[in-house]
Amino acid sequence: MSDSPIIVIVEDDADIRIQLVAYLEGEGFRVVGLDGGAGLDRHLATGPAPDLIVLDWMLPGEDGLSICRRLRGSGGPPVVMLTAKDEDIDRVLGLEMGADDYVSKPFNPRVLLARIRAVLRRTQGTAAQPADAGPETLAVADLVVDLAARRVRVGEAAAEIPLTSAEYDLLHCFVTRPQRVLSRDQLLDWKRGRTADAFDRTIDVQVSRLRHKLDASGSSVAPLLKTVRNAGYILAAPVRPAP
């Protein structure tokens, strides 16, 4: 049990919070239930580091979007948002703030469990790799991608580019399948497996964020992630083993 992932649930509805804590503990996780941003800040400062945070959007005081933005700015753990907002623009906004996934209320706890496990598989490096995976470090143009460590940098000596787990997973899809048109459905399936739904705007948002971060880092790869109209996206450059 001591090696089980630590999940922090930030939810101001006590009934939902208590039910989720009990349910996830029954699934073998170590779980901490908190009622807002202040409690989360205290836990992050003094408690064991969480492997994932389940974060309600509509919290009193500082809302979930603001908390998510802060966590991303400090390189915090992955976040699954809980939201009663089910409009496309709201989902896009949550992803733009750095959420790794989202679950709309009301929800079946098993759906949340599947999303948590999918994000943990990605962030803890246990997701299945393509059968033809070769070197653990790849290079495309001036970008170096360490597949084993899930780290990305420009050149050998440059600082690491701070990608979220969702952004890294998307880049992983491109560098392991270069010079191929990848549809939104394919990218959703590879990134989220059976938890994917029909909301493919998530891919558009994440590609845009990935391009922005690569461009801000000084990499020449951003313009090589090209949109193919009515088809998807392509990394229009060869990928080679890094020295």
Explain what you see.
This protein has 243 residues and is of the alpha/beta class. It folds into two domains: 6-123, Response regulator (Rossmann fold, 3-Layer(aba) Sandwich); 137-241, Arc Repressor Mutant, subunit A (Orthogonal Bundle), CATH 1.10.10.10. The chain is 38% helix and 19% strand. It is built from eight helices and eleven strands. It has helices at 14-26, 37-46, 64-73, 88-96, 109-123, 165-175, 184-192, 201-216, and strands at 6-10, 30-34, 52-56, 79-83, 101-104, 137-140, 143-146, 151-154, 225-228, 232-235, 240-241. A five-stranded parallel β-sheet has the order 2-1-3-4-5, sandwiched between helices. Helix 4 links the parallel strand 4 and strand 5. Helix 4 runs parallel beside helix 8 (201-216) and helix 6 (165-175) packs across helix 8. The radius of gyration is 18 Å and the shape is globular. The N and C termini lie far apart (40 Å). The model is unreliable at 126-133 and 193-200 (pLDDT under 50).
Number of strands: 11
Q: Using the alpha-carbon principal axes, give the shape.
A: globular
CATH class of the largest domain: Alpha Beta
Q: Residue ranges: pLDDT <50 for 5 or more in a row?
A: 126-133, 193-200
Give the number of domains: 2
- Report the CATH superfamily of the largest domain: Response regulator
Overall average pLDDT: 83
Nearest-angstrom radius of gyration? 18 Å
Number of helical segments? 8
Strand content: 15-25%
Reported by name, the CATH topology of the largest domain is: Rossmann fold
Strand count, sense and barrel status of the largest sheet are: 5 strands, parallel
Helicity, as a percent range: 25-40%
Q: How far from one another are the termini?
A: 40 Å
